Write the structure tokens for this entry.
Amino acid sequence: MQVIAIVRYNFRGFWKNPKSILTLLLGFVLCYLLSTRVMEVIETYHTPVQVAEPFLWTFGDAGAILLSSVLLLLLFSDLPKLGSMTPYYLYRTTRRVWLMGQFVYVICVSMLYTAFLFLTTVLLCMKMSYVGNVWSETAAMLAYSKLGKDLSVPSTVKVMESITPYGCVLQVLLLLFLYILCLSFLILAGNLLFSGNRGIVLGLLYSMYGVLLDPRVLGAILHKEEYEMYQINILIGWVSPLSHVTYAKHNFGYDRLPTVGQSCLLFTGIVLVLSVICMRAMRRYSFRFLGERS
């Protein structure tokens, strides 16, 4: 109950907070801009799509995932949440309980943001969609053509034969949620370990790490020929968090890339490690109230 009370306090004024409003507005604009290519395909071929497919096509690309997660740097910049009631909760509970409240708050916000991206994409394309759990003709056309590869659509023949649209979107949502959760816990750990909101710097490095691990860049550095790029792709698929969150860059039975389950376990392990780091940093964390340390 004490943890729930702390979480409820953290959510007070959440929907009126300028950071929350700006993050959601930018998220909506981002979804609109990213989904335009999907809407162009729908309007061009005049065929309905399954309601979950626009989200899969929009966030099947590593760049789209990166942009959507970077917006959270603004929302989570003030972690851990401090306010006028923080001294009261620290007096009535313990530092560990208060930190658990921060953990639950971060998890809830990450879930809300992931759901917001999904619902926004669905609403933008709902005019030509249906709710049946069957892949559309548009998805089949993209799976058998070069256009699907150009759009980074995770609607390959292998995927369509092995999983339903709702099953696929659940996996994509889980990967996106865990990736965002890792980013938020990293920001929290950085702010607890270092003063001056250094967690934002760690969050940026986390995002840039995935960007810099581009197969073409790494291949050029290592002087790999075209036929050797397969090894580079496998390596980056395992060491890049951005590759782990991209559904199309997983093992569907014919390569050595990580499976969706292995990526989920990796993200979960990172979150657990960051949780332990936060707990240890909490012992030495200096609270500031009214300009003083306590």
